[in-house]
Design a protein that fits this description.
The protein is of the alpha/beta class and 105 residues long. The protein contains three helices and five strands; from the N terminus they run βββαβαβα. The protein has a single domain, classed as Transcription Regulator spoIIAA (2-Layer Sandwich). The chain has a five-stranded mixed sheet, with helices on one face. The radius of gyration is 13 Å and the shape is globular.
Length: 105
């Protein structure tokens, strides 16, 4: 399932035998933070292992990183296993690494 394409970002959900994978792509910036937050909240109650992959991000900023970190903490507080992986282009990786942001949590 792919959602929110018209909003500048996409969430593609795929089910695995051991959980769910969400692939986030597109404009992952403050422009879309409110809508992205609302959509991710729907996944905080899942009891499956959840993997979030940020891939093919046209843009990503600190607001999106903080949103994903908060999402991961909320899932973990609810005893829902979650991991977040980033597959960013080299410039995005360098920018986030230089800012002290870990690219896996």
């Amino acid at each position: 399932m792919s959602r929110s394409k018209e909003q500048g970002y996409q969430i593609a959900e795929s089910k695995r035998p051991d959980g769910i994978t969400l692939v986030l792509s597109g404009d992952l910036s403050l422009n879309n933070a409110k809508r992205l937050h609302k959509e991710l909240l729907g996944y905080t109650s899942t009891s499956n292992n959840l993997t979030v992959v940020v891939k093919d991000a046209e843009s990503i900023d600190l607001g999106a990183i903080q949103l994903l970190q908060s999402f991961a903490w909320t899932c973990l507080k609810r005893n829902n296993p979650v991991s977040v992986d980033f597959e960013l282009n080299p410039d995005q990786q360098k920018l986030l690494t230089n800012a002290g942001i870990k690219l896996k949590f």
